[in-house]
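Deliverable D5.2: sample structural annotation.
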Amino acid sequence: MMDPVTGFEYPEAWVRAAQDPALLPLVERGFALLTADGTVLRRGFTTGTTAAAACKAAVLSLSGEVDRVSLTLPCFLRVELPARGKCGEGRCTKDAGDHPSDATDGLEFIAVAEPAENDLSLAFGEGVGRWARDVPGHEEGDPAVSETALSSSLRAAFEVVEEAGCYGARVLLRVPGGEAAAARTLNPRLGIHGGISVLGSTGLVEPWDEHLVTSVLERVRASDCPVLTTGRIGLKYSKLLFPGREVILVGGKIRQALEAAGGEAVLCGLPGLILREINPRILEGTGCRTVEELLARDGWRDAVEPSLADFHGRMPGVRVVLFDRTGRVLGGIP
């Protein structure tokens, strides 16, 4: 049995140990994870997926009531979600799956659509955060919405414009309670005010709990010099850079994974989590709030390379490869 999201082939022993075999079809379809002790953990859906469902329900409801919508996620899985739509208003509730501490779980996303002539547009209102300053890819005042999440919502709405009997549509998305929920996230520290971010590189939320962490670390211990990465983009490009090697998604558990690997591993991915793990104080004195901001500046290597050199001195058996969102290698430790 293989996870269609990560490509990981589950060991037969894990499958035989499944505590509830009736849930294995969810694992096979990619909507749940199987752990080494047989626990099945349900993946949730990102704010980007929830927004797309609300927008699609809103547009579709211009021609009749809606209680469910189907979406193609950025990871190419097809999913059907409960989403209510009536008279141009669509609603979908954020489902974080078995993630134990998702601050946006249970938030209701509300989209309001009205017909338009040969145009499809999406605006963001209450509860969606906005950038308080210019950052790479966004200007001050822009909504905190990733390119993937925006395109997913627009695509979902576009799929049903004709079915709704329209030539186009204008959609406004809001998230009541988003501002209060955002106070429990990193948004205030990142300079995002007024609400949550709408994100999601795969459309799914990983259910990081102790069962999943234990299983990931077990995979690391069983691998010979594994490639450790932090997210979906890292997973994609790590597999291209290191074909034939065991690539393991460890999320923010970098320190534990390196310990499990016995100090012999490749640490590969986007710079944010990796550089903050290598040097938690790397942004001090730079005037930047994120690693992405730092790397957008001229002379960023002067701030980063001393931290890489220090890390190499502490962990000489770990190779580091940093790349951007297009897969272009930025640097690291050979």
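Annotation notes: The two ends are 35 Å apart (CA to CA). The chain is about 30% helix and 25% strand.
The annotation will be released with the project's public dataset once the embargo ends.
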